[in-house]
Amino acid sequence: MSKNPYKEFSISSWAIDNKMTVYVIMAIILFLGVFAYYSMPREAFPEIIETKIYVSSINPGNSAEDVEKFITEPLEEEFRGVAGVKEITSTTLQDYSTIIVEFEETVAIPIAKQRIKDKVDQVKAETTWPVLTNGAKVEPNVFELNFSEEFPILNINLTGDYPIQQLKDYAKYLQDKIELLPEIKEATIRGVDDKEVEVAVDLYRMSASQVSFNDIINAIKGENVTISGGNIITHGVQKNIRITGEMKDPQELEKVVVKRDDGIIFLKDIASIKFQEKDPTTYAREYGKPVVMLDIKKRAGKNMIEAVEQIKTLLAAEQENYLPESLDITLTNDQSIKTANQVNDLVNNIIFGVILVVLVLMFFLGFRNALFVGFAIPLSMLMSLSILSAFGFTLNTMVLFGLVMGLGMLVDNGIVVVENVYSLMSEGMTRRKAAKQGMGEIAWPIIASTATTLAAFFPLGLWPGTIGKFMIYFPITLSVVLTSSLFVALIINSVLTSEFMKVEEEPVAKKKLIRWSLIILGVGILLLVAGFIMDVAALRGFGNLAILSAIMLWFYKYVLAGAVEYFQYKSLRQLEDAYEKTLAFALRGKKAYVFLFSTIALLIFSFILVGIIKPKVLFFPENQPNQIITYIEYPQGTDIEKTNELTKKVEERIYDVISKYDDNGYNYMVESAISQVGQGAGNPMTDGGQGSDMPQKGKVTLSMRDYQLRRGVKSSDVLEEVRNAVKGFPGASIIVEKDAAGPPVGYPINLELSGDDYDEMLRTAENLRTFIEGSGIAGIEELKIDVNKNKPEMNVSVDREKAGLVGISTGQIGQTLRRAIFGEEASTYKEDDEDYEINVRLAPEYRYDESVLFNQPITFRNNQGKIVQVPISSVVTKNNTASFSSIKRKNLKRTITLYSNVLGGYNGTEIVNDLKTELQNYELPRDISLAFTGEQEKQADNMGFLMLALFFALGGILLILVAQFNSLSKPMIILSSVVLSLAGVFLGMVIFHMDFVIIMTMMGIISLAGIVVNNAIVLIDYTQILIDRKMFELEMDEDDMLTKRQYFELIVAGGKSRLRPVLLTAITTVLGLIPLAIGFNIDFFGLFTDYSPNIYIGGDNVIFWGPLAWTVIFGLTFATFLTLIVVPVMFYLVLRVKIKVRKKRRMKEITKIRARQATSSERLA
């Protein structure tokens, strides 16, 4: 006997029997979801914490080669043996070493950090570790970085008719206030240097007085000090003795005695004391005018938008209460605005998608039933937000796109539930019974379809590397959304349909409509008036929404209701009849084979077409720049003043370019223009860009206005104009870049040489650059080498024999020269709670004179206590040379990298392929190897993972389907529809001239695999239910088979019955993505609160997410045809084959029986 197809789903039946509990659950979900939405921190992109540990060491006065030899190499050797280490890279500069140790992702950061700390301590203890001039060992700093804390979210610029130090004082005041905010990590002052007390020594007076640097430094240390002398008791009272020697004014240093032999020598006799700015290390300007700038960085996990709002509130209060009116404060590089716009655009895309989806549902299911399904959208999303918030997720574009992607999918389950219950009620069942039996029929199919979708996205959750950490929020969000929608469908929708569903909608009586519309209208007007009086935008918004709702009630009754009725009872039935005839036509005779093989041929044709057309292949989407950054670099050793002058000239050319976009004082393309020289002027992709002194570097940053304000001008065109304008400065390297879309992936052209001999490697890199530049490959902006040997250096060699004879050491010589040039901090001067260094060095006219420096005497007492003076030049020889600007290493091998951006209109992948072809016969020295790294390396790695993820997704889907159907043929039919749907993807890509974006297109294909199977599952499962019912009615066994004609009729009936949900799920998924795919933006909040809809097409979100959305749209549109025609065809062909096989078996059995009977008859005869 075949299995009974009439059954219930226990969980849904329990929910129907306990509706009050379900109503309470709904209320809890709504409350928690709304709370989560408003409390989740907003970010443009998710925070990425890499499993990298940084080790930085400072050893002043040493060349890059020496720092590498004594610090970098010993540490790297030990780090190599640490468990879990994936890659070791390092950069060694003069005085400085940075090592980055990347661990496998399975290693927790605290554990990794401790392992590295232990190795650092071991190396310090077991090797000849460098020491500082004060005798202390160099102390490496071991730390991890959170990149969200490293990039400024806001620049505060202070200008006005004030001395630069006064501006700095105001900046310092604001810095202290801002850093008290819990959301802020730090506020760094740029554009002005700290002050110091400089003791500028007159070399000739010091020598004539037979005074040494040691005498001066020790004298200052001994005088500028406050000491506790202990406690005494007098007359029963304990008193603390405190000797206060700290100076109240820098000029007090003039009276410090530095020598008493043969007369008293005061400090003023041999040096001048100045309280002044340090030598400049940074300049900052806004539109060419000097500013003191505050770089604001937020703490990890904090709400960027909230942080900037608090800063703006603080600034407004301080400008009103403390800061002078004449002080100009401007805010630039405000990332919160861009973040808010991106987040709001996606939220509005969701709202617009919901409207479209509900509108379609209304036409297919009627107003009341559409509300049941439509209610699942906000409920599922709010449930998802509460779960994501509980796991500590921020509300970023990755999460929001997961919600957009799930928008159309999450109604799928609700559609199937409502439509099935609706069908059973149409057959005469009571509402309650139809709800229970309807849930019983489709519960497991929708669980299976949800599980298959989750299986498709599960491999994406295993994505390794930085990009994986960046993209993982998408599959997690989508999985949470789909799980939430399944819960809503099985629990919430089952209760709502059992209580409120009606087969036929009764027209609303006119009196009732008037009453309800007047009530809603009255409430709306009250809220609107209150909103204007109290100036509360939310009240105005709700008021306008209520008024619109009252209007829409009448619009629905007299316009939409008729259209809906016509569509449901005429157009839809005509469509069902047409589909029934089409499907019957496709199933008859050999036409089934024609449909199947034509579809396969179309898939093959699409692959061939893509091979012929060859769409542009990109790693990430090419974004329109939101920032245009011009990096300026002179050779190492260039004075900051020279770099500053060049930066000013570059600024002038850039401002000439952007001035053409000025409209009566308003520049509609550029929001701000900030230039920096020295500190903070580096390129984050090559040298960190923030902390160290970079006197040879400058940069000019143009922050572009929001997309909708650009009046149709492409910011990429402005970038090309700037790139052309800044050419022609000999002796300097100037490159123009844009901000990156997505996680950092390196330069598109990145050739990495590795070996041991750095001189030979550098020669090879220069020869390679010359070869490439002469190859004629177009599109390369400028090939740069990340290492050079043009850093001026003077090598000083000590004649140890001569020095030993006169009683001085190499250390004394080095210390004297260092004190003369760089100086030494002798003590600290305190003023207004600020500490300022007291630095002792030679006066400027001496310390920059090479002859004077090396002819200066070293003054000391010999063994007999006699003061001796020995000129440095008598025991040293010197020669001018050049050293490496830096030494780069990767996995203990020295590396040099050639890198470049790609010019507009060119493709990095194509250029790299051309380079590989050109370099096939290029001979490298034997001990040097070449590899393409950067973006190309990451592109290959991620493409490999995504292909593997696709196969794992298909495998997971197959496993679930086999478990669902207990069959192999049905799962293979369903998976075939996934493969065949690729024809739609590739044809759409070719027809609409779209790029193949590796990350986004592949994610779209993987997403498609999970989406396409849903309709096929529901269709085949329902058809199987009809087959089971027929066999149950005919009292057939499970192993029996119906006739070919019966299968034909049941497949056509199943297809016709599932036409509505299949079309609905496809249309809703597509419509949910359409606003984002075409970039249609409308501000619903602005529309209802301020009557400002801000409608425009385009923007950052469509550029970033458009390729993924279009991949799903193309594939799903074609897959709908597959589901409705080709899947039933394949199912029918399989059944026909089974019938033929069954017939052949029976014929063989009959033949055998007859043969045995004939044999028996012969024996009897």
UniProtKB/TrEMBL annotation:
Transmembrane portions of the chain: 21-40, 346-365, 372-393, 399-422, 442-464, 470-492, 513-533, 545-567, 592-613, 943-965, 972-992, 998-1022, 1062-1088, 1108-1135
Keyword Cytoplasm among UniProt keywords: no
One MF term in the entry's GO annotations: xenobiotic transmembrane transporter activity
One protein family per Pfam: ACR_tran
Key words of the record: Membrane, Transmembrane, Transmembrane helix
InterPro entries linked to this entry: AcrB_DN_DC_subdom (IPR027463), Acrflvin-R (IPR001036)
One GO cellular component, as annotated: plasma membrane
Annotated SUPFAM superfamilies: Multidrug efflux transporter AcrB pore domain, PN1, PN2, PC1 and PC2 subdomains (SSF82693), Multidrug efflux transporter AcrB TolC docking domain, DN and DC subdomains (SSF82714), Multidrug efflux transporter AcrB transmembrane domain (SSF82866)
Protein name (database record): Efflux RND transporter permease subunit
